[in-house]
Batch of 2 targets.
Target 1
Amino acid sequence: MVDIHCHILPVLDDGAKTSEEAVEMARIAVSDGITDIIATPHTYDGFYLQRTEIVLKSVTNLQQALDLEEIPLRIHPGSEVHVHSELLEHLYSGQILSLGNGMKHVLLEFPSAYFPLVSNRVVSHLLARGVTPVIAHPERIEVFRLNPSLLREWTEQGAIGQVTAGSLLGLFGRTARGCAIDFVKQRLVHVIASDGHHVRSRRPELSEAYKALTTMIPEEEVEMFRHNAQAILHGEALQILSPLTKSKQKRWFFF
Ligand SMILES: [Fe+2]
């Protein structure tokens, strides 16, 4: 399995706190059946501002540590980019990393409680340049829970949604779980990732979430989720079904 969203690089953000924890996260991932992780430290979110060369160096360092320990896991560069007005300039000037550094897919993080005015412009400009916006965990973002039509419009234009494994399993509460399942069934999300941060909570694991997925949608659609993670890693074409239309869209509130 490929995990396209994980905060495994040590020290850079609120993920792994030490190199030792990063190596331990790698062991957890491997024992879950994960072969590749795209490391996605937060950037431009108001707290963290990654420098590309430091992320690349960190990937190299962690890979060397894993190779030394004979842990069979490949680490690839990436980032989780907070939506901001200069995103395209930063992407094309190399100041932020696309997923796998292939300039095909960019992981976008939205603030939970408000909608940045530049959002539509950023998404449409990326699509116009042939870059797929990957919307990080919309089931955990209040803006998308209250207005799923936003997500629907973007997925109809070519963006995709990334559901977090723990959301499907109820680790982020009932609202996130219900919304995640709803988005899966409506084809508003298209790839699973762990969004792993640590070894105890928010672990880098996917297998239980894939199992849960098989109870929600047909096996061939589950295969599309698997394919899309591989495709993002290799910069290849995604497999996307059109969102299902719903006569009345449920809005997910906190409770
Ligand atoms: Fe994340």
Target 2
Amino acid sequence: MDSISLYNPKILKHYKSNSQRARVLSENWCSSEMYCPSCLNEHIIHFPNNEKVKDFFCMNCRNEFQLKSSSKKFGKRVVDGEFNTLMKFLNKNKAPNFLLMHYSNDDWYIKNLFLVPKFFISPSIIEKRNPLKESARRRGWIGCNIIIEGIPDEGKINIIKNEKVINKKTVNKKWKKMFFLNDKNPYTRGWTTDVLKCIEDLSKREFTLKDIYKFKGYLKELHPKNEHIEAKIRQQLQILRDNNILKFKSRGNYSLKHFD
Ligand SMILES: [Zn+2]
């Protein structure tokens, strides 16, 4: 990655509206500057315009990426495309990786760019929106939001932070750290990422089973059909331990490995 500037006078001249400019400039930047965070291939390739759900892919490892760019910092949620289309992709375990780019349209610099790996996309973080009104051109169309604030920090991998480019190897290491989630189905791994989010929210070096049980209500809301929330929590703690994210200190006492 050589540049974090989207600036391109030809594109700026050709497009009049700032939203079109931003779309083309950010796509253009991704084609020339963005590498594959999974295999560190130098480039990712732009798909033709009509591709649903995905915008870029890696020729080497076949990972797919959807780019979202905004002149505002990403907040609690981000608007995505059609709900059923994304759910269909998700159920086939084919959700794309999301690249979320925050740029400035004063200087056209990328301020922040982070990656949400596909294995962090689960039904818990997809919110169905209300159908469009009668008067709308696409009436009845149902969109969705991705709930960014529901994703644990481990699933938001910084690529550029406050205009600073993060080392590629650090990015790749973070990808690999959580890659064990990839071969699980979206519902199963959703449990793991939801419990991880609760652990992070405690902001404690060490915690107890009791601490995590306090999130029972929150987890029940995300998984309303499950009647055995406590057992499910314990199972996720074991999965996190088996994959080196957690350490079991003593009975009912845990610590997050990256605090060590
Ligand atoms: Zn790749």
